Amino acid sequence: MLSGKTVLIGITGGIAAYKICELIRMFKRANANVRVVCTPNALHFVTKLTLQNLSQNEVGVEEFEIPDFKPEHISYADEADIMIIAPATANTISKMANGICDNLLTSIFCAFSKPVIIAPAMNCNMWNNRIVQGNLQKLLNAGYTILEPETGFLACGYEGRGRLCSLDTIFDAAKDILTEKKTLAGKKVVITAGGTIEEIDPVRYISNYSSGKMGIALADTAYRLGADVVLITTVPAEKPYPVKKVKSAQEMQKAVEDEFSNSDCVIMAAAVADYRVKQHAVQKIKKTDENEYSLTLIKNPDILKHLCETKTHQTVVGFCAESENLIENAKEKIIKKGCDYLIANDISRKDIGFSSDYNEVTILTRDGGVKKLERADKYTIARRIFEEIYG
Description:
Layout: E1 6-11, H1 20-29, E2 33-38, H2 48-55, E3 59-60, H3 72-79, E4 82-88, H4 90-97, H5 104-111, E5 116-120, H6 124-128, H7 130-141, E6 145-146, E7 150-153, E8 159-163, H8 167-179, E9 188-193, E10 198-201, E11 204-206, H9 213-224, E12 228-233, E13 243-245, H10 249-260, E14 265-268, E15 275-277, E16 297-299, H11 303-310, E17 315-322, H12 326-337, E18 341-346, E19 358-365, E20 370-377, H13 378-390
Parallel strand pairs: 1-2, 1-4, 2-3, 4-5, 5-6, 9-12, 9-14, 12-13, 14-17, 17-18
Antiparallel strand pairs: 7-8, 10-11, 15-16, 18-19, 19-20
Helix pairs in contact: 1-2, 1-8, 3-5, 4-7, 9-13
């Protein structure tokens, strides 16, 4: 199934390096050409000869072993269709996130312009380290695929998250990317993300718990499927496609309307505040001796409904977050708003939704269709949503 594809596997110095021997065999069985590059420390766990026999190719380790006068990190990057770094140690993750190129593997990564899958494996305390998590977030924001480690017994004797994810997970993720059709090529997709912020005064505001993760996953997925993507977001995001940073519902409305006329699809994944403060204080409101303080709120524009009323050829997709009666409320909303699709989220569950990397949604269509997407990571959910919209 992968005939004609070249898979570049980067192995770093972790105990899970031995597992990658079987991953190489999986890709070879799928008729892929496999190239392997190791950090010097990786060879403490698996031998170069083993990797060469399995891949049937020379294994790269040293940066300045340059055959035929070709810079080796560039030739590796040019040849491969996808790069997989597994296991990815905290050390290598931190180097990649900060553009450090001090060995062959990190130099190839920096020069690699095609899809990259990163599968971390490390001690659970290292995984939970805030700096490591920050570096992973930087890589995720830059558009790289992160396959999070599993929870279980670790080689160091700890019990926790840090085990390399299953080889099937890595193989399937690579296969999906390599065989993925550019179903959105030629389409402009506008996506909103995050929770809007409505200021009370210069230091206080009204907002919600939306992290923007679902909207960003949708934008990343649309970009990977070949779409011209515009992300309109209240949360910071550095992406290879245009990103418009907004704050309030009114700012979001203007940004969406500016992009709407020549768009093919608009997905309103953002949690837009229903109300804003009628009178925004220019100066900080001071505390008084009174036990109560009242704010007068006025309705924000209904961006989704306005888009549905003014659309000509566009597909408009809305989101709704419900804490009870999910399907009943969603059916009422899709009729009221008039959107083509409505994605319903159950925010009463702690294992999905706000701030989680996972979601479980129900897709409603204007003609009465209802389809549930079982719990999965938000990138998988995003891909399935586009499959429902565009087949």
